[in-house]
Every structure is written in structure tokens, then in C-alpha cells.
Specification:
heterodimer; A: 528 residues; alpha/beta; 7-stranded beta/alpha barrel; immunoglobulin/albumin-binding domain-like; six-stranded parallel β-sheet; three-stranded mixed β-sheet; 19 helices; 8% strand; B: 215 residues; alpha+beta; Immunoglobulin-like; 2 domains; three-stranded antiparallel β-sheet; 3 helices; 9 strands; 16% helix; elongated
Chain lengths: 528, 215
């Protein structure tokens, strides 16, 4: 490619809370991981593999949260995913048989069977049951910049009073990343894109070079941003803040105005788990007989009415290709517009939840592949980059103090601090305070005391997952989110009390260590 | 997943056909932990929700309240009501000043409140206290100060990175049509619409769960 006029940084944020229930043979919420692997992570890995095989020059940024990394490397969850995949494969085989008299549907059954067979190959044979190694490969090849996220996706502005708790969220993330990728992360995705002025100093302490903020984090920053969101800005700490671009984000994210709502794309809400005869589908739905999504869906969005036509894969692929072309065209125009007004090369930063691609927007991975191919082959105006690469372009970047912001509804903390979920904070704050005090009082703990303190640190981190407050707010799976919050707070308090009284319940500690085996190398002294 | 109504009350999935043991089936089933209603503390905490709203929660120890009420009695005063007093803080450090902004009368059971402070970009502090019939205020607990974010573009410019206003607004007006003298308002309005469009956070938990699919 000739010298481009500007750059585009696509950022995919992949995250799931730590959900692992060895005490049950199967557990509904573990399916979130299996579905994300099946629908999103494997398809994205296949896209990157194909692009690399074909010599396409591309750059992407992917954040993999520490809880997700731990789950992707967990033996029990890996074995359960493989069982899940076997079950899906069985269902797809039955479907190929059942639908053979209907050519249109049968083609789709075959498509699903092929997908599941390919997934098994990618997961087990190509990457040896370790998807983290796939992302490491892409990073080592210089195509994907993998960055981190806070340890358990804690919402940092709402723990601002307890700086050691914020430090722990960052340090555990950096340590987890270094363990998995063999080097420290350049950048971090702040959970929910939530920034509080001053938190960049903590990022600097742990060697992080950049983070992202929502558009108004930059636009309402001080001083006024000379380049809008089209340049990074250095905070006083020296850490760079990249602002989200509204236009490109909306085109992909919005299900109404954006590409994913196109009528030819696959309809998410029509699934065999709900459509088929109960006795036939029963072995493939929830163990208690409740109908759930299986992942096999035969309809397209069609329109706003309840009528849904049969999905036409080729038509959907044509649309994805056309949407990819449109996205390239619009970014070219955007960069041409910006480069005429800036005395340096503009950057467009477009972050999305990774799970949008493939899980919610079935054709998302193919759209991404087509887009990256067109960017490389069809034009010279815009080049894909990563924030890390862009920061090497110039000697100087403008300085500013970004404004508090998040990418949640209304742009601040309302989603996570609302009448339905605000009760959690007095407890989260209290256990953070107790953790800090305990770490300071037990400076060089050893043996059982050390194990208790380390488990207390895990319980605190797990209780702080922003997912629980988010789920409570959305009103779905509320019981699970409330139970998890209560469980971690309650166990923390019990362990703290045992530590204080010198009366440690070994059985309870061992149970907790087995069940929540995340962050095995954690060191409680980070809270001191 | 996704069709959450169908599964929201079924955390546990007892698979009737499963006969093999889980690799770690010796882990005890989840136990129920009690969490306390209160911790015996005496404190009030403020948290920023957005430029216009601050959340407060508090816990007042009986000892502290008893001591203050005793003092009021010894001073020959009569308790009128419990209040949450909100003050705006100006200045920094030793030069900081607090100016009472408003007071909320508390019912006995209240232990949290959303304070609609209104003005973005200000610093606030709150106290739970007792007001006497003659107006004296006795503080039971005073909060940490918090600063709400601004909600508009800064007028402060960096001398090293100055551009003309026209250039600046033209750059921001991409996608908004031709720039005009009203473009700042357009940019602000566009940004607000974007922020209120909702559902930007989703992951695996539902893309439109917060806005009902409306944009």
C-alpha cells in the first residue's frame, strides 16, 4: 500500500465473567462460554487464519479479559465445551436427515454440520484445545495486537475510593497477560470503557501505554481536543487515551441503523430449541426440559413482522460483502475529510464487543474478513493499524485530561449504579476496605494464612465483576447474578472472620480454591 | 442464551441422562452465605453516577447517634429532623470552602439517596445529621468529596495545539452535513443522541437489553 492518508484501528473486546461450576454435571450459564467459543472466537480465528494464509496485510486489536483467558485454559471447561460441540454435531447430523426433503433448509443443516466439524478441527487439532495460543500466534505474526482488560472486569469509577482495589484489578490483569503471552500488554480495555480521571496513573504504574475512552471522554476533556477523537492524547501520566469514533461504531453496532439489522441476515431469535417438536429437541435443550437456544437457526430477519423467511446463506454473504465495501468507502471518505483538516494523519478508532461478531450478528466474521481484504486490495487511502503502532508514528502527541465517561447507556455509570443494583456497593466497598486492612496487617503471611488471604483476594475480585450489576440491571439471569454477588461477598466475610479469629475452616477454603480456581498465582500483598 | 425468559429461573441444570461424574464432583454444592445488612460503621459514602447525579449511602452507629442526641439534650435543644445536607465545595486543600446547596429530610429507614445535584463539573460533599427546631445542625457523618464530570466541550485550548474554531468544528462535523455557525450545537446534539442510543454494552448478555431495541 502507498503512504495512506490516515488509519483505522478496529478493536474487539472479548470478555465473559468467570463461570465454572464443577459441583454440577452441567450448568446453564457455562453455555455462555461455549456459545461464545462456537459463534465468535472460532469464527474470528478462522478469519485471521485465512487472511494470514492469503497474505492479506491487516492489523486488529483484540482485548481478551483475564477471566476469559482463564476459562479458555481451564481443563474442565474445555472438556465441557467439547461435549457441547459433540451434542451440536449430533443434532446437526439429525437435522441433515430430517430436512432432506426441503432443499433450502437442508442446505442450512449441512452448513451447520460443516461448521461444527470445522470447529472441532480448529479447536482440537489446529490449536490443541487452547484458543489462547491462536491469538498468541496472530500477535507473534504482527497482525493482531492482543491487549488486556481488568482482572474480573471491575467497573473502576465505582471503586475509586479504594485505589489498592483498582491496582489489584490492573496488576492481576497484567500478570495474567504476561503469563499467557510471554510479555506485558501494551494496552488495556477499561471495563465498560469506563474512565475516571487519575486512573491512568495506575495504568502507568504497571507499564500500560494506552487505553480507550468513549467519544465524550475525549470531546469533554480539558483542554479542548485539537483533533477530536482522531488522535490519541497523552494524560499527565504519559499514558495515551484513544477516543471512540461515533460514525464507524454506529454503522456496525446499531441493529437498527447499522449493518446487522439487514433483512437478509440470519434472525437470532428463531432457533430450533424453540421451533421443533419437544420430544425431538429435548436431548439438546436444558437438562430440566426448559427450551433454550441450540444455535441452529434457519430463518432470516426478513422484516419487522413475526413472519420470518428461510435464511439464504449466499444472499447473506453477498450482503456482508456489500456492507464491507460500504464500510471501506465511508472510511475512505471520512479519512479524506479529516486529513484535509489535520496537520497529521488521522486515526479512526472503532471498538466493538467481540461477541457481536458471530453470536449476535451471524455474518459479522465474514463481514470483517471481506472488509479487511478490501482494505488491503481495493484502496490506498486508509490503512488498518493498532494503537500501539500509531503511537510510534510521531514524537509528540497533544496532552489532555479526559473526562469521566463510559460506553454504557447515557455515557456514565447509570447502568451499574441504579435502584436495582446499588445495594451491592456498600458491600463491595466494605470488603475492599477489609482486604486492604488485612493485607497491611499480615504483611508476610505464610501457610494457611496466606492461602486464606489469597482466596479473599479472589473472592473480592470475583464479586467486583461489572457483569453482575449489568445483568441485574437488564433483568435477565438476575437470580444468578445476585447469587454470585452474595456468594463472593459472603465467602469473603467468612474467610476474613476466620482469619481474624485464627480459626480457619480448611474444608471451606479448599472448596473455594477448587471451585474458583482463577488467578492461581495471585498475591494478596498487592492490596497492602 | 438470548431467549433469556425461558431460562432465567433455572440456574441448575440437572441432566437426567448424565451418569458420569464431573471431574471435580467432590466440590460441595454452592452454599448460601449470609451478608449483613450493616457493618456497625459510622460513615456516609458518595459516588458519582453522572454529571447531574450523585449516589450516597450511609450507616450511622447507634453509639454516635446516641452521643449526638445526648449533646443536643444537654445543650437544651430539641431535635427537629434527620437530614442529608449537600454542600458544594470550592477551592482546594486548606483554601477549600463548603457552601450548603440543599437538604433532604430523611425518614428513619432511609440509608441511601440519589442526589440530583444538577450542575455538572462541580465538587460535592454530604453530611447526615440532625437539625434542631432552632436550626442548629449536628453532623453524624461526613462523606468523601466527589467531583461530577463536565458535560460539554471545554473552552480551554492548548496553545501548542491550537487550530481555528472553524477548522475544529469542521473536523467534528463529519457526517452532519455542511458545517455552519451552529455546528457546535449540532455536534453536542449528535453526541447526546449517541450516548442515549443505549445498548452499547452487551457482550453475551443481549444487545438491546437496555433500550428495548429503540434508538
Amino acid at each position: 500500500m502507498n503512504d495512506p492518508k490516515g488509519y483505522l484501528a478496529l478493536v474487539l473486546h472479548a470478555h465473559l465473567p468467570f463461570i465454572r461450576h464443577p459441583e454440577h454435571e452441567t450448568f446453564l450459564e457455562e453455555n455462555w462460554l461455549f456459545e461464545a467459543i462456537q459463534d465468535t472466537y472460532i469464527p474470528l480465528i478462522e478469519v485471521f487464519d485465512r487472511l494470514i494464509d492469503d497474505g492479506v496485510d491487516f492489523r486488529m486489536t483484540v482485548s481478551l479479559s483475564p477471566t476469559l483467558l482463564n476459562m479458555l485454559r481451564d481443563e474442565l471447561l474445555v472438556s465441557r465445551y467439547l461435549k457441547h460441540l459433540d451434542k451440536l454435531t449430533t443434532l446437526a447430523r439429525m437435522e441433515v436427515e430430517r430436512t432432506k426433503s426441503d432443499e433450502r433448509v437442508n442446505k442450512l443443516s449441512v452448513m451447520y454440520l460443516e461448521r461444527y466439524t470445522r470447529a472441532k478441527h480448529v479447536f482440537s487439532e489446529k490449536y490443541n484445545n487452547d484458543l489462547v495460543s491462536a491469538f498468541k500466534r496472530f500477535q507473534d505474526l504482527g497482525k493482531v495486537e492482543v491487549i488486556t482488560c481488568c482482572a474480573t472486569h471491575g467497573y473502576l469509577p465505582l471503586m475509586d475510593l479504594y485505589k489498592p482495589a483498582i491496582k489489584a484489578q490492573v496488576k492481576v490483569a497484567v500478570d495474567t497477560y504476561a503469563e499467557m503471552f510471554g510479555k506485558p500488554p501494551k494496552g488495556i480495555w477499561l471495563p465498560e470503557c469506563a474512565y475516571q480521571p487519575g486512573h491512568d496513573e495506575i495504568l502507568a504504574e504497571f507499564g500500560i501505554s494506552y487505553f480507550f475512552v468513549e467519544t465524550h471522554g475525549i470531546m469533554f476533556g480539558t483542554p479542548r481536543p485539537r483533533y477530536g477523537v482522531h488522535s490519541p492524547y497523552l494524560c499527565d501520566s504519559g499514558v495515551a487515551a484513544f477516543g471512540r469514533d461515533m460514525e464507524s461504531s454506529k454503522a456496525v453496532w446499531s441493529s437498527k441503523e447499522g449493518y446487522p439489522g439487514d433483512h437478509s441476515y440470519r434472525e437470532y431469535y428463531r432457533d430450533l430449541g424453540f421451533d421443533l417438536d419437544y420430544d425431538y429437541i429435548k436431548p439438546f435443550i436444558n437438562g430440566d426440559g426448559t427450551r433454550i437456544n441450540t444455535g441452529i437457526k434457519y430463518h432470516r430477519i426478513t422484516g419487522d413482522s413475526d413472519f420470518k423467511d428461510i435464511y439464504d446463506r449466499q444472499a447473506a454473504m453477498d450482503t456482508a460483502d456489500s456492507h464491507a465495501g460500504n464500510f471501506v468507502f465511508n472510511r475512505e471518505k471520512q479519512i479524506e475529510h479529516l486529513s484535509g483538516l489535520m496537520d497529521r494523519k488521522p486515526i479512526i478508532v472503532s471498538p466493538y464487543d467481540a461477541e457481536l461478531f458471530g453470536h449476535w450478528w451471524f455474518e459479522g466474521p465474514e463481514w470483517l474478513e471481506a472488509f479487511l481484504r478490501k482494505m488491503d486490495h481495493d484502496q490506498d487511502t486508509v490503512k488498518t493499524t493498532t494503537p500501539g503502532e500509531y503511537l510510534e508514528l510521531y514524537d509528540k502527541y497533544p496532552v489532555m485530561k479526559p473526562s469521566m465517561s463510559s460506553w454504557g447507556y447515557k455515557g456514565y455509570s447509570e447502568v451499574w449504579l441504579d435502584g436495582c443494583n446499588d445495594w451491592i456497593y456498600r458491600h463491595l466497598h466494605k470488603i475492599a476496605e477489609l482486604m486492604i486492612t488485612a493485607a497491611r496487617e499480615h504483611e508476610n503471611a505464610t501457610g494457611m494464612e496466606k492461602r486464606v488471604l489469597n482466596q479473599m483476594a479472589r473472592e473480592l475480585l470475583l464479586a467486583q465483576s461489572s457483569d453482575w450489576a449489568f445483568i441485574i440491571k437488564t433483568g435477565t439471569f438476575t437470580e444468578y447474578a445476585v447469587n454470585r454477588t452474595r456468594e463472593h461477598i459472603g465467602r469473603f466475610l467468612a474467610l476474613h472472620s476466620q482469619l481474624k479469629d485464627g480459626n480457619i475452616d480448611t474444608g471451606m477454603l479448599e472448596d473455594a480454591e477448587k471451585k474458583y480456581n482463577v488467578f492461581k498465582g495471585i498475591d494478596y500483598s498487592i492490596y497492602a | 442464551m438470548g431467549n433469556s425468559d425461558a431460562v432465567k429461573d433455572t440456574n441448575r441444570n440437572e441432566d437426567a441422562e448424565a451418569t458420569s461424574q464431573s471431574p471435580e464432583a467432590n466440590v460441595c454444592p454452592a452454599r448460601v452465605f449470609d451478608i449483613p445488612q450493616s457493618y456497625g460503621d459510622n460513615r456516609i459514602t458518595l459516588m458519582v453516577r453522572d454529571p447531574w447525579t450523585v449516589y450516597s449511602y450511609w450507616e450511622i452507629s447507634k453509639d454516635v447517634e446516641g452521643g449526638v442526641r445526648g449533646q443536643i439534650e444537654r445543650d437544651g435543644l430539641t431535635v427537629s429532623k434527620s437530614v442529608l445536607r449537600v454542600s458544594e465545595v470550592s477551592g482546594e486543600g486548606d483554601d477549600s470552602e463548603e457552601k450548603k446547596a440543599f437538604e433532604i429530610t430523611l425518614k428513619d429507614w432511609a440509608d441511601s439517596w440519589y442526589l440530583h445535584v444538577g450542575d455538572p463539573g462541580k465538587k460535592w460533599v454530604a453530611e447526615v445529621g440532625i437539625v434542631c427546631e432552632t436550626g442548629e445542625f449536628f453532623c453524624l457523618a461526613k462523606s468523601n468529596p466527589v467531583s461530577t464530570p463536565t458535560n460539554s466541550m471545554s473552552d480551554v485550548c492548548d496553545g501548542d495545539w491550537m487550530g481555528s474554531d472553524l477548522l475544529y468544528y469542521k473536523m467534528l462535523s463529519y457526517g452532519l452535513g455542511e458545517s455552519s455557525f451552529e455546528v457546535r450545537e449540532q455536534v453536542d446534539s449528535h453526541l447526546r443522541k449517541w450516548l442515549f442510543s443505549g445498548g452499547m454494552t452487551s457482550g453475551m448478555f443481549g444487545r438491546e437489553s437496555l433500550d428495548g431495541g429503540k434508538e
